């Protein structure tokens, strides 16, 4: 009858366990995006130089970059990633700063925009900032009221404008249009309608009794007339 020493059996089992391959955790894969394209890579722990660790490419597009990112170092408490290439010796090629966990933004190469996003992470939407800048101003000074910045609401009953300066009345909505007459400062006239050009310039067609013409309402942040008289 075959007898098996229990202690020997445990030793054999332990030896077999040690011999089995150890499966490490799946690497964290990041998508790097630049004007040159996108590339999936992971940040490994193998050193390529003093203080610089290796990267692992997960698709062939990583090799298409002018200077493939083959090394990195974490700085500023892991809030900054410095990127390196070993294509022609060790060269720093980029830097990205954490905006939130799993999302870094920075520059690479000659100042090109760079983003690094960890797969599975969803960066929170950032609020759209309203550009700060000078307010639209009346041509005779001071910030314009919001009600005077755009075209008069003719359909809503605002059918007049009041000139803030002496202006030319032209045959067409353009500074090259023939001058038909003059509109005096503070003069109130009836508006037929207005046209907007390039998002910055507004011309309004006015009625002058015996003829119609066009006057400048807004140009380059300057307001030349108020909407409605009073």
Write up what this structure looks like:
The chain is mainly beta and 230 residues long. The protein is built from 2 helices and 17 strands. It has helices at residues 6-19, 146-149, and strands spanning 29-34, 37-49, 52-57, 71-75, 80-85, 91-100, 103-108, 112-118, 137-138, 160-163, 167-170, 179-183, 188-197, 201-207, 212-219, 222-223, 225-227. The longest helix has 14 residues, at 6-19. Mean pLDDT is 81; it is low at 1-24 and 124-132.
Topology:
Elements: H1 6-19, E1 29-34, E2 37-49, E3 52-57, E4 71-75, E5 80-85, E6 91-100, E7 103-108, E8 112-118, E9 137-138, H2 146-149, E10 160-163, E11 167-170, E12 179-183, E13 188-197, E14 201-207, E15 212-219, E16 222-223, E17 225-227
If you compute it from the alpha carbons, what radius of gyration comes out, rounded to the nearest whole angstrom?
35 Å
> Percent of residues in helical segments?
under 10%
Structural class: mainly beta
Strand order, main sheet: write it out. Answer: 1-2-3-4-5-6-7-8
Mean pLDDT: 81
Low-pLDDT stretches:
1-24, 124-132
Shape: rod-shaped
* Strand proportion: over 45%
For the terminal residues, how far apart are their CA atoms? Answer: 117 Å
């Amino acid at each position: 009858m075959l007898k098996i020493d229990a202690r020997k059996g445990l030793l054999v089992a332990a030896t077999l366990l040690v011999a089995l391959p150890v499966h490490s955790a799946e690497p964290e894969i990041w998508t790097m995006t630049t004007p040159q394209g996108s590339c999936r890579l992971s940040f490994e722990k193998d050193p390529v130089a003093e203080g610089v660790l290796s990267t692992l490419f997960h698709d062939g597009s990583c090799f298409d970059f002018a200077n493939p990112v083959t090394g990195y170092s974490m700085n500023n408490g892991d809030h900054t990633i410095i990127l390196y290439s070993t294509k022609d010796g060790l060269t720093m090629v980029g830097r990205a700063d954490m905006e939130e966990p799993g999302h870094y933004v920075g520059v690479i190469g000659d100042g090109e925009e760079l983003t690094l996003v960890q797969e599975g992470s969803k960066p929170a939407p950032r609020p759209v900032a309203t550009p700060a800048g000078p307010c639209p101003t009346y041509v005779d000074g001071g910030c314009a009221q919001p009600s005077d910045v755009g075209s008069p609401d003719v359909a809503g009953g605002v059918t007049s404008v009041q000139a803030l300066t002496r202006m030319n009345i032209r045959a067409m909505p353009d500074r090259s249009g023939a001058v038909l007459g003059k509109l005096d400062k503070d003069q109130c006239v009836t508006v037929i309608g207005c046209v907007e050009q390039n998002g910055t310039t507004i011309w309004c067609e006015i009625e002058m009794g015996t003829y119609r013409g066009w006057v400048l309402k807004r140009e380059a942040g300057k307001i030349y007339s108020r909407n409605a008289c009073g």
